[in-house]
Amino acid sequence: MNYAAVRYRAIEKISSPILTAMARMNMARAAAVFIGAHMRTEQSAEGAHPVNIVYLPKPGHTEDIMACFKGRERYGILTLDRKLVKAVFAAFLPKTMDDNNYKTADAQANAAKLRLRAFWVRVLKYLQPSLNFHALFTGNFSYASEQELAAACTELGVPFIALHKECMKTPGLRPFYVDVYKTRKIPFQGTAICNYNEMETGIQAEAGVFDPDRIKIVGMPRLSRVHWRREDLVRSGNKADAPTILFFSFNSKAGLPVLGRKIPGSYETLQAGLEKLNVERASDACHHALVNLARENPGIKVIIKTKGDQKARRFMTRLFGENPDFPSNLHLAEGGDLLDMLSQATVAASFNSTTLFEAIALDKPVVVPWFYEITDPALKPYILDMDDAVLYAHSEEEFCSMLKDLALKPHEGGRELSQTSQRLLEKWCGNPDGKTGDRVRQVLDSLLSKSD
Hints:
Layout: H1 3-24, H2 28-38, E1 40-43, E2 51-55, H3 61-69, E3 75-79, H4 82-90, H5 107-131, E4 135-138, H6 147-156, E5 160-163, H7 173-184, E6 192-195, H8 198-207, E7 215-217, H9 222-236, E8 244-248, H10 272-275, H11 280-296, E9 301-305, H12 310-320, E10 330-333, H13 338-344, E11 347-349, H14 355-361, E12 366-369, E13 391-393, H15 396-408, H16 419-429, H17 436-451
Helix pairs in contact: 1-4, 2-5, 3-9, 3-17, 5-6, 7-8, 9-14, 11-15
């Protein structure tokens, strides 16, 4: 039995409606007890000066938190399921007031936000002493359902920190996101924002979403695990069990302007010049090419890694149908530890994906498609510049031949990274040294010392 899946469905279908009803009836004490019963302790704090953090799990953010605090005995780690936060939100505001639609002049909606904040203040006054937590972490400064929770924490003097994971903003995306941040989002109501890189920090500063003095560049924490694993591979001489291609699935809007909404269709229509940008043909071609490569090369293991959410499942169903006839050496991966997959891969591939930086940090060969719409000059400002740290395939045929050759070719992984790779990891991920966790803990400890 998949306990995690059962728990997910139970919180979604049973616990969340109950919590929403409690919030509607203004039952703060009951809500605090209910939320506390659902929180899990992943690590207990030890030592003379223990610190307990609460984080809101989300792919990417969870790995970042673990890279910062897992195994650090001073820090306890508790999880608060984001669905429960959304359940409280649902008692006060409609779901259409989402991440990209939270800023409003509507007096009724803003009054509801204040009531939501007041409810969270009361819940936290009951919850915080019983669980003895010192700070909360989230993965983005602008998640709508968490805005008033952040404000409530600030009001009570509990640090609420955004370890902001959406930081891969190319030059083309900068004006788009400056406008979105200014016009669609409210200023962050928490205590500090920790970013991966200067690009995201510059956008936030220009948009005025937070006090620049409280925005820190710390780097991508989860990349530290990759640095450590690369060093382990050097010591162990570990090699992949079999020739393995790891492909990170990407859709037609990978790295391009989109505005996700809680509306039918999931996306808001942008102005025509932005709306038409897409890499649909390249995306479709890469996925079909991987299936054909697997079918023609049964000795090569091919893994297609998706995000595993509903959008990703709909995308894969559109490409291959409900019950695709994949060869036995092709595997679709939705969950699992990405680092373990990368460690066993002999080559990785994708387009405009953060995961490629993790492959580079692990010293894996990386192939990037460079054909069809991707070569359109209009897309150039939106493409992650990975320089010569990766190989570029200029046709479907070259894409497959490169992947096949690199999968079968022995590669001495775990070497010292090239200067180009180090420069890219510094520019985009802010973590060429594996010490991002130190910087995050310094931010937290500084905030706690000020609150004492």
